[in-house]
Amino acid sequence: MSKPQHYHFVLLLSTVVVALAAIANAAAATSITPRFKEAPSFYNSPDCPLIIDESHGFSILFSDQAVHVAMTLDAAYIRGTVAAILSILQHSSCPQNIAFHFVASADASLLRATISSSFPHLNFLVYPFCDSSVSRLISTSIRSALDCPLNYARSYLANLLPSCVHRVVYLDSDLVLIDDIAKLAATPLGDNSVLAAPEYCNANFTSYFTSTFWSNTYFSLTFANRKACYFNTGVMVIDLDRWREGDYTTKIEEWMEVQKRMRIYELGSLPPFLLVFAGNIVPVDHRWNQHGLGGDNFIGLCRDLHHGPVSLLHWSGKGKPWARLDANGPCPLDALWEPYDLLQPKTPFALDS
Ligand SMILES: *[C@@H]1O[C@H](CO)[C@@H](O)[C@H](O)[C@H]1NC(C)=O
């Protein structure tokens, strides 16, 4: 075989490989990340602080004056995340002073591109999260969606985010804000609280742990000197410095190790947070987490709002508004989520290239 022929064969082969890779990429892009519209631009009102960071130029991503928001980013919830971001920007008086910190365990570059194309001016960083770092600690819960390693990323924010970020608002992806996030972020944490969140002292706290837990004196003594109340971990204001000082990630992991051995609770990432923090958090007004709109953990019944004012709507529970809308079976309150949906409407007559 002469050299040129061989060369042509290799060239042809590599062309085929490149073409196949392109097809695979396109397929992945369409199946993993749906297309979203570009959001309108949002600008600071005139009285917003102008943030200039000496070391990073005009950067708010590491600034003390910025409102720092942490969320996870994955293919399954991307539509919810995009809606949440839009809702935050739209109701903020200083939207350009918000820094987003996204934690992603896979497809990070694709997800980053999706966020950039919908929000071209967004201040954000994407942090890789290694699933295997936490998966060895996860035991199966009553709802398989809760067992996803990324669901535990909220326990690792203090390690993931740079140490110059001192306070963060953690938000789930199945919620929308209808009020200024700066108000939530400014919650006073007092002299030593690590975390602030709406708490619910009427909820039956006992039911979040198994009888194995309560019948073990050593375990139940954990709550001995605190008035432990349930709180939802989908909306939390976290002092990252205090978290790092107290090494709360390790404390959470220790309870997860106990769970691995003796099943002391039924849900996923929530109970370890309750074990470590319940009774020691700063309570936030309930308006900041109108949760449960997804229904229960089993069939996802429609739920109504709780009494009182609303600043944040949270579709926690099994049913998600985008899924119910797609299935033509929305709950009445899903109409409040829909205006933030940036998914490109399906165009059945257009040929997708
Ligand atoms: C709280 O939950 C526990 C365990 O699920 C149950 O045994 C108890 O009766 C409940 N208490 C109330 C007041 O509902």
From TrEMBL:
Gene Ontology molecular function: any one: glycosyltransferase activity
Keyword Signal: yes
The protein's name in its UniProt record: Hexosyltransferase
Subcellular location: Endomembrane system
Membrane topology recorded in Swiss-Prot or TrEMBL: Single-pass type II membrane protein
The encoding gene: LOC107910174
Organism superkingdom: Eukaryota
Family: Belongs to the glycosyltransferase 8 family.
Record pathway: Glycan metabolism; pectin biosynthesis
PANTHER family linked: GALACTURONOSYLTRANSFERASE-LIKE 1-RELATED, GLYCOSYLTRANSFERASE 8 DOMAIN-CONTAINING PROTEIN
Leader sequence segment: 1-21
Enzyme type, top EC level: transferase
UniProt entry keywords in alphabetical sequence: Glycoprotein, Glycosyltransferase, Membrane, Signal, Signal-anchor, Transferase, Transmembrane, Transmembrane helix
Keyword Glycoprotein: yes
